């Protein structure tokens, strides 16, 4: 081992001299990549791997659902509870801190505050560095906590909505979160459908109804749904428990416009089989537009179409935050240049590298830490003013991290039918046209006049 570690252990040949500089360049490139933001990529990848390991998805399978008999289900299906929170009690503080220290501004002040624990770099009292940083983080945590509480309240309202459940003894009121696969649920007109169901019966004589799907696919036109013919012909609601029938449903999937399944009634000779399609379904988050419907629940919770098509909640970053982050980096470079000039005026004498860092700490006030606090408090004020605006009553601010982005809108493009009926601006213009080279020039001239 000593021989291998000595300089005389090996002699470099010509090929070694050609490959070694390339290796050194690659090493410097890797180090530069790590210092310039690679550490954030590595941390994010590690967190995603940890979350993926802790949240292993159960394999989705096709299922057989017996009418009115949840106890006959072969597997345990997820609870029918809606959850839109980003954090929980355990992950709130680490999650918020991670999101904050991704920005160069907060990370910079954290490094400066930690440097005061080194005696040779200490400039002043510790509280002069840690108190402002702690106040900034406290304001951010309060804002995130308020948003999280609002999301929790909205979820609680949705999960606490009461529905009529049909049992052998009659109708029973149950919460939306207590609905199980196999339950027979009665949904009245203008009521939200709590889970994915198969349409069995309706109060309409023609055996069909209309539903509104604007909260599911953004379309405002009503959709026609048709009942299962076998169950619609039954004389009374209670007869649903006198028949031996089940629904074979495909495994949960993302496509909201297709469905494959079968309805089977076994107590007949011969058994009755009916194929099921999208016209026999009632997806969650849709609203009954006509009549009263009765359906059997086939998917709940995380397996519903509406939930499968919902992406995981992420922390939204606005353009103003990104611009502030770039501005902070520019000020930091100016700060370093100024520190180098101060050390150069001393002739780089003595422990000049330590003096350089001390100058960086002294000039740290070039970057105002109050800027982040004012920005967060302003965003909260914007969100509150939007919700209290009398001209737009009923407006709900879903997040307080990007309300200022509404002031940056120049062009609004959408491909969802029925989402926007009228477009208002000040001064008010209501128009509808196809944009091309010939039409954009007059619009730009009109915009410049105001």
UniProtKB/TrEMBL annotation:
<protein>
    <submittedName>
        <fullName>ATPase phospholipid transporting 9B</fullName>
    </submittedName>
</protein>
<dbReference type="GO" id="GO:0005802">
    <property type="term" value="C:trans-Golgi network"/>
</dbReference>
<dbReference type="GO" id="GO:0140326">
    <property type="term" value="F:ATPase-coupled intramembrane lipid transporter activity"/>
</dbReference>
<dbReference type="GO" id="GO:0016887">
    <property type="term" value="F:ATP hydrolysis activity"/>
</dbReference>
<dbReference type="InterPro" id="IPR032631">
    <property type="entry name" value="P-type_ATPase_N"/>
</dbReference>
<feature type="transmembrane region" description="Helical">
    <location>
        <begin position="330"/>
        <end position="349"/>
    </location>
</feature>
<feature type="domain" description="P-type ATPase N-terminal">
    <location>
        <begin position="71"/>
        <end position="130"/>
    </location>
</feature>
<dbReference type="Pfam" id="PF00122">
    <property type="entry name" value="E1-E2_ATPase"/>
</dbReference>
<dbReference type="GO" id="GO:0005768">
    <property type="term" value="C:endosome"/>
</dbReference>
<dbReference type="InterPro" id="IPR023298">
    <property type="entry name" value="ATPase_P-typ_TM_dom_sf"/>
</dbReference>
<feature type="transmembrane region" description="Helical">
    <location>
        <begin position="356"/>
        <end position="375"/>
    </location>
</feature>
<keyword id="KW-0813">Transport</keyword>
<dbReference type="GO" id="GO:0005524">
    <property type="term" value="F:ATP binding"/>
</dbReference>
<dbReference type="InterPro" id="IPR059000">
    <property type="entry name" value="ATPase_P-type_domA"/>
</dbReference>
<feature type="transmembrane region" description="Helical">
    <location>
        <begin position="127"/>
        <end position="146"/>
    </location>
</feature>
<dbReference type="Pfam" id="PF16209">
    <property type="entry name" value="PhoLip_ATPase_N"/>
</dbReference>
<dbReference type="InterPro" id="IPR008250">
    <property type="entry name" value="ATPase_P-typ_transduc_dom_A_sf"/>
</dbReference>
<feature type="domain" description="P-type ATPase A">
    <location>
        <begin position="171"/>
        <end position="303"/>
    </location>
</feature>
<feature type="transmembrane region" description="Helical">
    <location>
        <begin position="418"/>
        <end position="437"/>
    </location>
</feature>
<keyword id="KW-0812">Transmembrane</keyword>
<dbReference type="GO" id="GO:0006897">
    <property type="term" value="P:endocytosis"/>
</dbReference>
<keyword id="KW-1133">Transmembrane helix</keyword>
<dbReference type="InterPro" id="IPR001757">
    <property type="entry name" value="P_typ_ATPase"/>
</dbReference>
<dbReference type="GO" id="GO:0045332">
    <property type="term" value="P:phospholipid translocation"/>
</dbReference>
<keyword id="KW-0472">Membrane</keyword>
<dbReference type="GO" id="GO:0006890">
    <property type="term" value="P:retrograde vesicle-mediated transport, Golgi to endoplasmic reticulum"/>
</dbReference>
<dbReference type="GO" id="GO:0005886">
    <property type="term" value="C:plasma membrane"/>
</dbReference>
